[in-house]
Amino acid sequence: MLPVTTAWLSSLDPLSEVPADQLQWLIDNSEHRLLAAGEFVVKPGEVIAGTHVFRQGRMVLYSVQEGLRRDFSTVLPGEITGYLPYSRAHFASMYGEITEDAQIMSLPRERIRDLITHNFELTQALVHVMTNRVRDFSVLMQQNEKMLALGKLSAGLAHELNNPAAAILRDAMTLRQHLKLVPDRFKEVMSIHMEPEDVDAVSDLFFPMIAERKHQQLTLTQRMKEEERLTDWMEERNVDNATDIAETLVEFGICQEDLDRLDRHIPRTFSSSMFNWLHANLVTEKMVEDIAESSNRIANLVSSVKVFTHMDRDQGKTMTDIHPGIRNTLVIMGFKIRKFKIEVIENFGADVPQISIMPGEMNQVWTNLIDNALDAMEVNGKGTLTITTRRDRAYVEVTVADNGPGIPREIQSRIFDPFFTTKEMGKGTGMGLETVQKIIRQHHGTIKMHTSPEGTAFVVCLPVQG
């Protein structure tokens, strides 16, 4: 074991100004230990036993998040870690694993009071170590929280984009196959002999059916019954592909009465050719409509992401309507909302004015509050997310409420503490609500929490003029 002397301690930057007698007190009141690689100084949830000065070896501090190990820092010889004077941390939030055989000098936690009472300069030096550590660790954890949030949003956005993108690909391939049949349909149509007035009548009747498409709300039984009715009608007239045609006609809301009107102007000899040509037009229209709808969904998602991140905007405060930011957050988190079977209720006040905020920062608030609410309701397999906005004189109040099981009484006072989380290991860093509170304070606002076994509500109050 290497010697730990006052001269060696004085060579350490944080302790260089500490009197020798106080350094000797630290040596005399500490435990001197040897730890082998693979041993743990501390694990999540354990009480932080004391102040540790590393004489040799090294230790890695890490957490396990989303099933993955995330390293935060490495403690090297000459560095000080563990519990420090005036620290509010009682329990460890991560693993401290020895990765290289180490010699540690540890001042037991119960001697900290004597340290503070009798060793002013040593206490001052260790407090300085603590403030530096908190600052550096906060930056790391905040960055980690942002990366976790980005990962969640990216996963949800990928799911949201996947459905319309797959639909476009599927419809494009189907449309290509469908268009290969056009030459055959063309020959059939060119062989049709109809009077000019009948051609005009069919045109005047058919194309408005496409433009004025009826969206019928039919049950499966009603739909099948209507398809059978139209199939029988066409089979009586020897129309090929009657079943396929009937399915498309029902989707467009075309009924037997519509077919009867068309039929009066179509010679029976050409019924099959004519109705297959009409069907081809309907199928083409449907696929083009589906492609347009899917493309519009993608465009809306991209627009939502742009507004959510507030790209191409000044990051200062600006008079902003808060509702688009909340709605865009819901759009981006749509996959998680559907996955957890959550009903979303928007009680947005009509008289809520624009307020002076940093939109990108406030979108982080909505994301954290909504994401926490969704996670709270996951255990129920379903739930209701209610977002309410209202004006309260010179303030705007936003309430994000869930009907989950609520927050246990014994931890309610700690939910805004840095690094504290109610989620299981790997699902959160404990920086979400702390970040929310910090952003709201920057906007001169307040946030309150109301919870019970029937659910939890976070109430954000922001001044109109910031």
Question: Descriptors for this entry?
Answer:
Jelly Rolls; 5-stranded mixed β-sheet; Heat Shock Protein 90; alpha+beta; 466 residues; single chain; 14 helices
For the record, the CATH class of the largest domain is Alpha Beta
Number of H- or I-type helical stretches: 14
Strand content: 15-25%
Tally of extended strands?
A: 13
Q: Tell me, what's the shape?
A: elongated
Radius of gyration: 34 Å
The CATH homologous superfamily of the largest domain is named Histidine kinase-like ATPase, C-terminal domain
Number of domains: 3
**Element string (H = helix, E = strand):** HHEEEEEEHHHHHHHHEHHEEHEEHEE
Distance between the termini: 60 Å
Low-confidence stretches: 425-431
Structural class: alpha+beta
Biggest pleated-sheet summary: 6 strands, antiparallel
CATH-assigned fold name of the largest domain: Heat Shock Protein 90
Q: Estimate the mean pLDDT confidence.
A: 83
